[in-house]
Amino acid sequence: MARNDSRDWAIEAQGLVKRFDGVTAVDGVDLRVPQGAIYGILGPNGAGKTTTLRMLLGIIDPDAGMRRVLGSERPHDMAHAIGYLPEERGLYPSMKAFEAIGFLGALRGLPQAEGRRRGRILMEKHGLGHLADRQIRQMSKGQAQQVQLLGTLVHAPQLVVFDEPFSGLDAINQGRLETMIRELAAGGTTVIFSTHVIAHAERMCDEVAIIAGGRVPFAGPVDVARDRIAPQVRLETARVEGAWRAAIPAEARCDLRSDGGAFWYFSLPDSGIEPLLRALIEGEAGILSLSIERGGLHDAFVAIAGEAVAQAMNTTQPEDAQ
Ligand SMILES: Nc1ncnc2c1ncn2[C@@H]1O[C@H](COP(=O)(O)OP(=O)(O)OP(=O)(O)O)[C@@H](O)[C@H]1O
């Protein structure tokens, strides 16, 4: 999504620091979330995602730094315009689903009767209408989580903050949540969510903050993160020898084919593909196939945060597996 820098920010944070008992959980986080964006906070367990979100929401105060949320440096004052799904899920077990949604709305300033009315409509819209009168205690964990998600939206917030919203949901409901997030953003709502699953961020987000060890080595558009790594070239030639070989980067991997040709794999040189193509054609290398692919967010993540952190990201719960 093309944006310029005069945009309005739903969230701006600068130099956020949080220490717990001498341990620095968040160590100078800067980020800016554009209004109407889908924004991912991406990092492994213990990276500082939840602590960052809690500071942005005003649930805890930073030891240092500034945050401005929907234009206010006192995020609590904006509670009526924010929806929040915390990492620890929880609803009153004796409430019926539509009542629980009304209750969550009331906590954000929506009259309870209106919240209950909207609760039924929201449940209907999201395929949960048959559960509206069921008590939370009679629901599965995933169903209750979906009710809680709807409860974060009932007061029509401008900004929603979801902490690990996909964990605990099966594949179908993860897909529904993705659709819901896209619809929210299309309607102008800003959505920020944390995840340790790179694929979710890659599919969903306009922008991401990569967080590891309480620091943010990258924050910005997903495309810019991808540009941190060179596109990968895969070339197949009918011949192996010739003057054209000088044009292929020295670090290229070469797999010989049984018929005298070869596969070549290498990062696109800074000079681009054209000088290489010219050399291959003039030298009669016999190009059989050629592809140039941009790296994915996973490769960018490895380049930015390191292999060890990326490995930790891939250690997902079975329910999060894609
Ligand atoms: N209340 C607390 N008291 C002490 N340490 C804390 C507290 N909350 C968080 N921490 C520590 O701060 C660090 C960051 O925790 P945080 O919950 O923000 O990480 P996270 O990225 O959300 O992790 P996860 O994906 O596991 O939820 C961790 O080392 C954690 O142990």
UniProtKB/TrEMBL annotation:
PROSITE patterns: ABC_TRANSPORTER_2. GO terms for molecular function: ATP binding. SMART domains: AAA. Residues 11-238 form the ABC transporter domain. Keywords: ATP-binding, Nucleotide-binding, Transport. It comes from the Bacteria. This is ATP-binding cassette domain-containing protein. InterPro entries: AAA+_ATPase, ABC_transporter-like_ATP-bd, P-loop_NTPase. Signal peptide: none annotated. It comes from Novosphingobium ovatum. It holds the Pfam family ABC_tran. Belongs to the ABC transporter superfamily.
